[in-house]
Design a protein that fits this description.
The protein is built from 17 helices and eleven strands. Helices cover 57% and strands 11% of the residues. The longest helix has 44 residues. With 524 residues, the protein is an alpha+beta fold. The radius of gyration is 33 Å and the shape is elongated. Helix 2 runs antiparallel to helix 8.
């Protein structure tokens, strides 16, 4: 029972199930975003180590052991993490409704429902603070007190590790950006793909079975209204499995029957739905023999092994009179399955093809007529395109959430790059002054300070491209119909990353480049 919500793929569940893979994806992304924040903390703490070098030297000189200093720096990191947790709890409580929009699901009303959850969160915060503070603590306490107090430390080492962290940050951000772009492209493809029938301006009135023998009267009267282009009684429609039928079919050559999804409708059903007949003909209400005739789609013809389907006999007494072009009646994650169309007797829905401008007026008159015929039954209806909207809802929410988290990850990465570039510019202030005195222009200075970070971004792109391509190839395998991966998508993402990164770095580089060298060198 515990597995039903996330793992069941059966039809007719009591309520729509969740998506286990999406849950793991979101959990993974949240871990990556937390890693980005931890990387920022480590990067900026080690980069600004010169600010605390003398403190460490003095403490060591007066007898403080390295172990005590390590504990002090780790405790500082834990305190930062705990304060961040308190702020995050307040922000999460405030923005809980906003997260419902991102996830598309109804969430808990408050985070304070379980004391154990809050306790676990604070324990997790301590762990994060501890892990984030280990490297800076050991790094800061490794300074030689004699060198530090003599002022000969200079530019603190550890640049290679900081470079690795920058590459790590932007690799994750670029991966998320590429994945987000491909997901959005797939969503657009699914929304614009030709479904094989006309889903626009189609209203389905539900539970027409409660009308009994007055169903035909209801249909005929409403068909006379202005703006009504066609009407059909039917059982089952594309995009909905609520009332679909499954029958078994076979030909004389087949050893075993196969089960095929079946739509039952009146003779107007095919025309009203906008299915495309590519062979044979439609049902004809004037021909009594059509009561035992069938129209099949291309997939059904292949499944039944009918090279020449028109005139073929299935189930011993049913003649194939027509073939419609394959149309999507499930999510685009599934290949188009075989479908058989029959003339039925008992119908559950009544579909109307209407002019878009007449929809509101039509529904008012339809409801009035319904209440006149069956006053005790509620009038229910839906639009056909809502069926596929519901099928695409989870995919759309997934794309929206990925886009949100990608923006957040890129923002965090740029924050780290912003701080690191500011520190680099500060460390090289005197060098910049000397270069300017020797004739270097502002553009030369900006180029010099940006070159290192540009190289790191290039490495991150080189790493992120194959990883994101592999991840998206795996994700796209879940769709039977998918958008083609285009080189332009990758080029645009790379260009955006470069522009954002260069703007982030260039801000401090330009500020450093325009400083008067007399101000930086006057004490030399």
């Amino acid at each position: 029972m515990l597995d039903v919500h996330l793992k069941s793929t059966l039809l007719f569940e009591i309520s729509p199930g969740g998506n286990e893979s999406s849950m793991y994806v979101f959990a993974g992304i949240s871990v990556f975003i937390l890693l980005l924040a931890s990387v920022n903390f480590i990067n900026l703490t080690t980069a600004r180590a010169t600010r605390r070098a003398k403190e460490v030297g003095i403490r060591k000189a007066i007898g403080s052991g390295r172990g005590k200093l390590i504990v002090q720096f780790i405790l500082e990191s834990v305190v930062v993490s705990l304060f961040a947790t308190i702020i995050s709890l307040a922000l999460a409580e405030i923005f809980l409704s906003a997260f419902e929009i991102v996830t598309g699901e109804q969430l808990v009303n408050t985070l304070w429902t379980s004391g154990w959850s809050i306790l676990a969160l604070f324990v997790f915060a301590i762990l994060v603070g501890f892990l984030s503070g280990i490297y800076p603590a050991f790094y800061l306490t490794s300074f030689n007190p004699i060198k530090v107090l003599k002022g000969s430390v200079g530019v603190i080492s550890g640049g290679q590790f900081r470079n690795f962290l920058v590459v790590f940050q932007f690799s994750i951000s670029i991966c998320l950006m590429i994945c987000s772009a491909i997901i959005l492209r797939q969503m657009d493809f699914m929304q614009t793909k030709d479904l094989g029938f006309n889903e626009e301006n189609m209203v389905s009135i539900e539970n027409v079975k409660s009308l009994g023998e007055q169903g035909e009267v209801f249909k005929n009267e409403l068909s006379q209204l202005s703006g009504v282009l066609g009407a059909s009684l039917h059982t089952g429609e594309p995009g909905s499995k609520a009332i679909i039928s499954y029958y078994t079919y076979s030909t004389a050559e087949m050893k075993n029957d196969i089960t095929i999804s079946t739509y039952l409708g009146d003779p107007d059903f095919i025309d009203v739905m906008g299915f495309h007949i590519i062979e044979g003909r439609n049902f004809d209400r004037k021909l009594a023999s059509d009561s035992s005739a069938v129209v099949i789609n291309e997939s059904a013809a292949r499944a039944l092994g009918l090279a020449k389907p028109i005139g073929a006999v299935i189930n011993k007494d049913q003649h194939v009179i027509g073939v419609v072009r394959d149309f999507h009646w499930e999510s685009l994650r599934n290949t188009i399955a075989p479908v058989v169309l029959l003339i039925g007797k008992d119908y559950h829905q009544l579909g109307f093809r209407i002019d878009a401008k007449s929809a509101k007026e039509f529904l008012l008159k339809a409801e009035a007529k319904w209440n006149q015929l069956v006053p005790g039954e509620p009038f229910k209806y839906h639009f056909l395109d809502d069926n596929f909207g519901a099928l695409l809802k989870k995919e759309a929410v997934f794309g929206k959430a990925i886009g949100f988290f990608t923006t957040l990850a890129l923002f965090i990465s740029c924050l780290g790059l912003y701080g690191l570039s500011a520190f680099t510019a500060e460390q090289r202030t005197k060098e910049i002054g000397i270069r300017k005195v020797l004739g270097a222009s502002a553009s030369n200075i900006v180029s010099m300070l940006s070159r290192k970070f540009t190289f790191l971004i290039c490495i991150a792109i080189f790493i992120a491209l194959p990883v994101s391509l592999f991840a998206m190839t795996m994700w796209m395998e879940g769709f039977a119909y998918k958008a083609e991966l285009q080189l332009l998508t990758f080029v645009i993402v790379i260009a955006i990353v470069f522009i954002i990164a260069l703007l982030t770095v260039s801000f401090h580089s330009f500020r450093a480049a325009i400083i008067n060298p007399a101000d930086t060198l006057k004490y030399e």
